[in-house]
Amino acid sequence: MTVKTAPLGICDHCGGDIHDTWYTRRGPRRYCCRDCRNTANSRAGAPVRAVKAKQRVAAGIWVSPLADETPEAEALRLARMGMKSRQVRRAEVEAGAWRNPALTPAARAKLSRPRTILDPVLHQAQEKLNSGQRVADLTPEEQAAYRAHRREMERAQRERWTPEERERRHEKWREYARRARERRKSKGGEG
Ligand SMILES: [Zn+2]
User: Fold this and answer.
1) Which residues lie across from 10 on neighbouring strands?
2) Which residue of 1, 3, 55, 59 has the smallest Cβ count within 10 Å?
């Protein structure tokens, strides 16, 4: 049984006026509103819950809710809390070594360029490849997007060649083709 602590008509929790009737069927009304009643009841119950929890621990029947957490669930929980990156940032700040990563010259240059990947399928493919998957692991759609992108990059690369570099590579290719022709000739045995 609870006992009213504040004077009649005053809320036991917030000290405000009780605008409702000052009595209930059980006696003096303690709180002005439901929120005050719930908050006060929760706080009154906290020591009781703590004692019960300590008794469960002492009796060896308490089981941590994290006991059967899978590694994936743990990683997700820690990531949500930002644990790893937060610890790293804090150490950097304490050592005076933290710099806004977006303000380095390299980052400024990169951020000022237009985005290169506008195709979501290609972007997905590159994310997978960056995470260690092989081209063969990609969906046919992603493979097609990735190969088209590679061809485009190689074409752009060729366009940047200097005349000397182009001549050097063409000479290499002619040499390769000549050897292949000779191999075929000697294999076929024709003259
Ligand atoms: Zn109140």
Assistant:
1) 17
2) 1
Per-residue pLDDT of 127-184, as tens digits, reads 899 888 889 989 999 999 999 989 988 888 888 888 888 888 889 999 999 999 999 8
Residue 114: C-alpha distances to residues 109, 111, 157 (Å)? 10, 8, 19
Name the residue range of residue 14's domain: 1-66
Structural domains of the chain, count: 1
CA of 38 to the centre of ligand 1 (A): 10
DSSP conformational letter for 17: B
Let me know how long the chain is: 191
| Centroid of ligand 1 to alpha carbon of 115 (angstroms) | 56
From ligand 1's centre to the CA of 51, what distance in Å?
27
Query: What is the distance in A from the centroid of ligand 1 to the CA of 36?
Result: 5
In-domain check, residue 126: no
d(CA 5, CA 13): 9
Q: Which residues contact 30 (CB under 8 A, 6 or more apart)?
A: 2, 4, 5, 6, 11, 12, 13, 37, 40
Residue 116 covered by a domain: no
